[in-house]
Write a structure and sequence with these properties.
64 residues, two-stranded antiparallel ribbon, 28% helix
Amino acid sequence: MPPSLTVSNTDSLGEQIQRAFPKVKVVKTLNTVTAALMVEPGQLADGEHAIFVCGNDTEAKSRQ
């Protein structure tokens, strides 16, 4: 207690994927964006906004 999610509170899906595929570059993003905003980013500030990206590979994070 309290209850927790299988993939979230202590381990992320991104971390699980990275462990399963150690040579793959995993970059986690879009966690705070709804599906509607993903397909139509202009709904927020005319599309002029930033999104959080996390990971520990500088080259992977620099790709767009």
